[in-house]
Specification:
alpha/beta; Rossmann fold; Pantoate--beta-alanine Ligase, Chain: A,domain 2; 2 domains; 6-stranded parallel β-sheet; 3-stranded antiparallel β-sheet; binds adenosine monophosphate
């Protein structure tokens, strides 16, 4: 496996392969890789000839009060996982390389970034949209894979690729969870044993919401109330939002008529956890979500 650190070498590598007709797959990450990342890497491996994983803790998507400096960076272990999974290139740019002096441009996707994570983390999605656009420009992949775990992020990436006519196809893969339902996340490493025990309540609340919808309840206020009550049984968990939304626009619904996405964010101590579930009203014709293939 090659480790590449500069944009120039990365692009040269990709362009050479593209000229030979090689299909390039790409999984962008911030490292601290776990089985969620591994599933994206494996899915990409099946769909392409050459595979690039980027590891870059992107300063632009952290606010000054967030965990940029303490974000886990187990680079040796991450490279080992990439090697194990047959990754061809680990792209590890520096912050200076990505944002040299004089850097000015930002990409924003205002409507999709307005609510939920965007409200809680005001600069977050412009940081994400900008770095993803840059990474696509540098790596020039045919295919890039993202996790449903970060539902709003995946929706935003699809939107920007479409709006900016970027020649990359996007695939979104299901969330990988612990056996107790907790969505895997690099930030789970921050949880103490006690916090880890209660963290699965978020996914449990979302499952309760999904069961209500599958059972025929379409009143969003009732669903949100029940989800909230499920979590509020555990006083150490603070609910930031629990919402039933349109799966494409992410606007809140008042009644579920077809498909919905249940979005949730909680805080346990100083740690924020997010999760989501897609759900379809019973009796509707099954069709793939336009958002998620
Ligand atoms: P991150 O390193 O957190 O920026 O995540 C890199 C990619 O991995 C993103 O597309 C995430 O949505 C995806 N990802 C993170 N956690 C999971 C998970 N539990 N299951 C599936 N994909 C995930």
């Amino acid at each position: 496996m090659k480790i590449i650190r500069t944009a120039r070498s990365m692009t040269a590598w990709s362009e050479r392969l593209r000229r030979e007709g090689v299909i390039i797959g790409f999984v962008p990450t911030m490292g601290a890789l776990h089985d969620g990342h591994r599933s994206l890497i494996r899915a990409a491996r099946l769909r392409c000839d050459a595979l690039v994983v980027s590891i870059f803790v992107n300063p632009a998507q952290f606010s000054p009060t967030e965990d940029l400096t303490t974000y886990p960076r187990p680079i040796v272990r991450d490279r080992a996982l990439c090697r194990e999974e047959g990754v061809d290139v680990c792209f590890e740019p520096t912050a200076r390389g990505m944002y040299p002096e004089g850097f000015q441009t930002t990409v924003t996707v205002p409507a999709l970034a307005r609510r939920w994570e965007g409200e809680a983390r005001p600069q977050h999605f412009s940081g994400v949209a900008t770095v993803v656009t840059k990474l696509f420009g540098i790596v020039h992949p045919h295919l890039a894979l993202f996790g449903q775990k970060d539902y709003q992020q995946a929706a935003l990436v699809r939107q920007l690729v479409n709006d900016l006519n970027l020649a990359v196809s996007i695939q979104v893969r299901p969330t990988i969870r612990e056996r107790n339902g907790l969505a895997m996340s690099s930030r789970n490493a921050y949880l103490s044993p006690d916090e880890r025990r209660i963290a699965p309540m978020l996914s449990q609340a979302l499952r309760t919401g999904r069961q209500m919808i599958v059972g025929g309840v379409n009143d969003v206020a009732a669903i949100e109330r029940t989800m909230r009550q499920t979590i509020e049984q555990t006083p150490a968990i603070h609910v930031e939002y629990l919402a039933v939304c349109d799966p494409n626009s992410l606007e809140p619904l008042s009644v579920v008529t077809d498909r919905a996405v249940l979005l949730g964010a909680v805080r346990i101590g100083s740690i924020r956890l997010i999760d989501n579930l897609l759900v379809k009203m019973p009796g509707r014709k099954s069709r793939a979500s336009p958002q998620y293939s």
